# Entry
Amino acid sequence: MPDTFHYLQQLVNGLTVGSTYALIAIGYTMVYGIIGMINFAHGEVYMVGSYVAFIVLAGLAMLGIHSLPLLMVASFACAIVVTSAYGYSIERVAYRPLRGSNRLIPLISAIGMSIFLQNAVQLSQGSGNWAIPNLLPGNFSFGPGGNQEVMVSYMQVVVFVVTLLAMAGLTLFISRSRMGRACRACAEDMKMANLLGIDTNSVIALTFVIGAALAAVAAVLLSMQYGVINPYAGFLVGLKAFTSAVLGGIGSIPGAMLGGLVLGVAEAFGADVFGDQYKDVVAFGLLVLVLLFRPTGILGRPEIEKV
Amino acid sequence: MNKPVRQALFSALLVWAVAYPIFGLKLAFAGVTLQVHGASASTLGLIAGASVLLFLRVLFAEPLGRLRKGSGKPWVPPRVSNYLTLPSTQRWGLVALVALAFVWPFFGSRGAVDTATLILIYVMLGLGLNIVVGLAGLLDLGYVGFYAVGAYSYALLSHYLGLGFWECLPIAGLLAALFGLLLGFPVLRLRGDYLAIVTLGFGEIIRIFLRNLTSITGGPNGISNIEKPTFFGLSLERRAADGAQTFHQFFGLDYNPAHKVVYLYLIALLLALVALFVINRLLRMPIGRAWEALREDEIACRALGLNPTVIKLSAFTLGAAFAGFAGSFFAARQGLITPESFTFIESAIILAIVVLGGMGSQLGVVLAAIVMILLPELMREFSDYRMLMFGALMVLMMVWRPQGLLPMQRPHLELRQ
# Structure
């Protein structure tokens, strides 16, 4: 059956993209879980991360460094540091002064922040695409050959492995560390956590920083895989990641991981059936369907409205 | 080191971490390889200056705060701002504005009238979105989708069926309203933030379809040569199509292209005034009261026997209808529409107008539309920085004055202590 291999190939592609969506979605879901607002500028943090990765890669290449592990480690480290600074500053400037006001207000401020960052990067780095060649060409292939083959590129393997490591690290941090426990307590009941002596301000800042760092990991991976970046990339990727977070049940970290994978696969198959230009329609269509039939998402808990 | 110094140092470092990689280094192509160059010394100086300023600001946060509290006088004295936001003042303000708006284009320059027409389109859009966001409290980020539906329905009807602007105007409004109803039906059960994202998704979906259904909508090239509105069947072009008469022939005037510009302005003014009047009346009807009640407290509304879905749906549909009117006028004015006229940024501008004006306040929307469209026109030389400042303004506005320029005020009594 040639079809089986074709579908398997779509599955592999979908899972790769989906795992990076999942990383970004964690940022949305953690912030939502703690302060109940959508960090609309998160997609822009991702975009900044991809620019930092490119700058580091280009800079090291100019210095004559071509060892792949070193390039990767350096770009991960720099991107994480810079986007963490962005995450922290965005929270401090655009969200902290608005805490406790009407829900629409931080959302609008977040949209403003997103427009600001997009245009700032565009003004300083130009509005065109930047491209780098593939750093890790080659792929594994499975199957008898000809049309009946599933290709998994080395880069896709790297994306998988790094994503899994990042998620495992986050899960350990949230479930085992002292700060992680504080995070969970804040998500449960912010006021009570504060009364019990948890510094809620720093917990909230930390959630933004963790989200931004994970977005940076995704940014480095995706921009290495595709090799192209531009200042507008953050908007759509952010939207997809938010869709994943909602799909999995916003506020739930395992939900965001699952939602990302589901969305990535659905998109890959959707693009296959309806054509590539309708890929985004499939993603949003899926979001609407899930919200209609299961508004809390796949793993979300129903939220009780209190008077 | 004591705490303030540490915090101040941290902030100064933060400025470098945020600004240096993106603004201090620039990507460039050398042939096909990507390279990085340092930015100009002035950029580095700016970053350094910003970090020093923030260092001082954080270091002296406490004395500065005390200083500000000492001179804590509001920007506008409370009595004046109270007077300005009273419904009766707003009414008289409106009457004066309308009289002025009808008279000045006959004396103004052509460019100014054209800009004013654009402002009026945004007034219309702002008033429509104000129903949804300001009054009913539903954050709709895909409003531009209905604007696109209105614009494309006029363009397509005129292109394929040869219908004129005045026949298409109600049809475009109805079609947009129908879209609002169809899209609103599934999503209005969702809570606020979900609603925002789903509507954003819908707006994008409409644009994707417009771009990809090339055989019908012309794809990315859009539709061109859309007819301008006629004056009771009289064309305002230099030459009319066969059998029709032109405006200047009928009245025995010399042909003057300014006629067309002023005429378009007057149509826009009329449409905006109709929108203003209709919404103003609706506000005083039970449905308008229900919108506001719903915005304030959904649970209380349910307890009083109001059906939230129907109320939300009516707000959504009506808002969409006004976007449809605005859209068909936009198509008529431009003569050319492409899917790129209807991107998310357009939704954000309309939303910013509603928020800047003060959610729910109609005069505020008018004022904000003037500010938002006129400022970038006046600052042509800074046009690169337009969207940058626009984003910054949205954030600062939310932080400093979340209630908007002219917040809505109901007639009310205050208890004196």
In short: The two ends of chain B are 48 Å apart (CA to CA). The CA atoms of residues 88 and 133 of chain B lie 23 Å apart. Chain B has two domains: 3-70, 82-400. The mean pLDDT of chain B is 83.
